[in-house]
Specification:
Its EC number is 3.1.12.1. This protein is an alpha+beta fold and about 220 residues long. It has a single domain, classed as Lambda Exonuclease, Chain A. It contains eight helices and eight strands, in the order βαααβββββαββαααα. Strands 1, 2, 3, 4, 5, 6, 7 and 8 form an eight-stranded mixed sheet that branches. Helix 1 runs antiparallel to helix 2. The protein is globular, with a radius of gyration of 20 Å.
Amino acid sequence: MYSEDDMLMLSGIQHFRFCPRQWALIHIEQQWDDNRLTIEGQILHKHVDDPFYRQKCGDQITLRAVNIASYELGLYGISDAIELLPSLSFEDTIQHPKYPGQWKPVVVEYKHGKPKRNEVDEVQLAAQTMCLEEMYAIHIPYGVFFYGELRHRVNMDITDELRNIVKQCTQDMHEVFAKAVIPKAEYGKHCDKCSLKDICMPTMVKNCTTVDTYLNKNLYE
């Protein structure tokens, strides 16, 4: 269990899974820059992240910008949306002060693009779900993505494999943050889509020679 002083931003787990160096530049060195992809994402979330907006469609209620946290993972943040589905059972349900009855909560994450080939988005959604589970001592079997480019919802099972990835990621995040050391760059195709490419300089860092290597090569041979 982590203390409040040790809590890290939940949104960072997506950055860390994408690239530990990117995450460290953002959360340790406080570096940031925008590109087309990040701006499009901000525009989408501007219409979503309103904590005072609640939507009721039939028996279903949607809450926006909900604060969530997990002391086991050491994460805190805001969920884009949580859907409350009515239930006749008390098992794995919650109560809401404004809406009588029992409700099954489902985390909804909004993405401006389309499903990625890796599990970066899935890890973020799983982490949010695990936070909500801890807060209410319930089990939530799935979450939902809404992809802006596709205008389509996609359900995702929160598997044991995803949960283990989340646990390992958060452990690694806390270790890197405690050491305050920026991981080395590992250049790949993913770097071209990163808004911090000019700050990170992955190709330059990759080709940098350490002092020991330089001395051994140029002075001691």
